[in-house]
Amino acid sequence: MLRVVSLVSGLLTKAVLATTLGDSWYANGTRAFSSTTVSSGCQQACTELAVEFSVALHYPSADNITWWDARQQAVQPACRVEPSSSADVARIMAILVANECRFAVKCGGHSRSPDDSNSVGGVTIDLQRLNKVTLSANNTRATIGGGATTYQIYSALERFNLSFVGGRVDTVGMGGFTLGGGTSPLSSKYGWALDNIFEYEVILANSSIVTASEHQNPDLYWALRGGGNNFGVVTSFLSRVFPQGPVYGGSWVFSDDYTDKMLEESQRLFTSVDDPDMGYWYAYSYNQLQDRFTTSATGRYVEPVSNPPVFDGLSRIPFESSSSVIDSLGNFSVRGPITGTVRHLFTTITYYPSLALSRKGIELFKDEIQSVKNVSGLSAFLIVYPMQTSVLRAMKERGVTLISLGWSNAADDTAMNAFSDRVIGGMKTAALDLGAYHPYIYLNYAKSDQDVFSGYGEHNRRRLIEIQKSVDPNGIFTSQGLWRGYFKLV
């Protein structure tokens, strides 16, 4: 089976900074939107959509939707529409193209920039009503709506003691997660989300509804496996599902004195343990209130085994706190409520497993945090997701690395961007020096100025562009088209 990228074993590194939203985003308790000019074409499109979609059409002045990212929260579209079927999406597409109105598509809405999933002055197509999960007769496949969230899907399947290759966070949407690749706590056993999709239902720019699979439109099927939002609007996915009951979840928190011990044990788990039932990642974090660093490790085991022996090495390191729970994947995915108050920035690097580079990453993070440690309400993490050799078997030659960030006040944007660039730039230099660097960039966690598709390899990038032009000859889904947000091939 063809793959968009062919990679080697690596680590997935994610740095996350989160803060609360500053007062400048609100005025007397009323949400303040950025000033936006709406084109006459979009005004006409919203008028036509209001006639056809009635209560499923929302104007900003009467809309109370909450977005995951504060910058997208501040965006003012011309209107937001909630289709209930693929036919609805096709009709919306026809109206938008006819009126030359820009748009964006929201699945879960976990992207980070205006126009990614909330259109600046255009129409936001919100797929939240496309959230059904329909099982096949033999319970081996499920048709999943493009707007379904991680928790909705887990919950629907868990009633039948089934699961799928889903994400770690409850409100992430099926669409963006899967089209970007989709790493999962179950990836060691089953690969990434894209490795488990049999077919896609896609609305093309000409409003046609097509199926993409190995047998129907196989080029488009190949391109959607990591190609992002460059080809059309995916309204449903036919996904593999499998028997799955409760799983083990363990966590350990260590003082900074034991960070190196944790790194050594993590390196062993990354490179020497070949257990497909295991999922593992760790985070190095800065606590602003206490002005100190700690490390936390998180383990998952797909069998309901209390304290699996594979994690015994972590338990032998002196820890400040720990937990051991048997629960559902759905419950493990639950985070706090979305408030629309956090500014997020992700950036990523891929490298071969290297203890020296892991140490260097923490050294860089620790040094560079000094430049942003006084950012109001700062909470900062450097998170590392490994890919064991078992993942490569399940994914058929795939592995990655990542960093991501988040904060609150617009006044701190420049400092936070510079911070992220220094950390990731320093890690890239170190990775090159150590011979551990890999050019792949995981789309779902990439920074907006990173060249994602060059990391797929030149042959693959060119083929993706050819397919994009063949299914979208008028460039509706390009950087100069009607949906310009997120990562574009053209």
From TrEMBL:
One Pfam assignment: FAD_binding_4
Superkingdom in the source lineage: Eukaryota
Signal peptide annotation: 1-18
Entry keyword Oxidoreductase: yes
SUPFAM superfamilies for the chain: FAD-binding/transporter-associated domain-like
InterPro entries, per database record: FAD-bd_PCMH (IPR016166), FAD-bd_PCMH-like_sf (IPR036318), FAD-bd_PCMH_sub2 (IPR016169), FAD-linked_Oxidoreductase (IPR050416), Oxid_FAD_bind_N (IPR006094)
Molecular function (Gene Ontology), one example: FAD binding
Keyword Signal: yes
Keyword vocabulary terms for this entry: FAD, Flavoprotein, Oxidoreductase, Signal
FAD-binding PCMH-type domain segment(s): 73-244
Family statement: Belongs to the oxygen-dependent FAD-linked oxidoreductase family.
The protein's name: Related to 6-hydroxy-d-nicotine oxidase
Organism: Fusarium torulosum
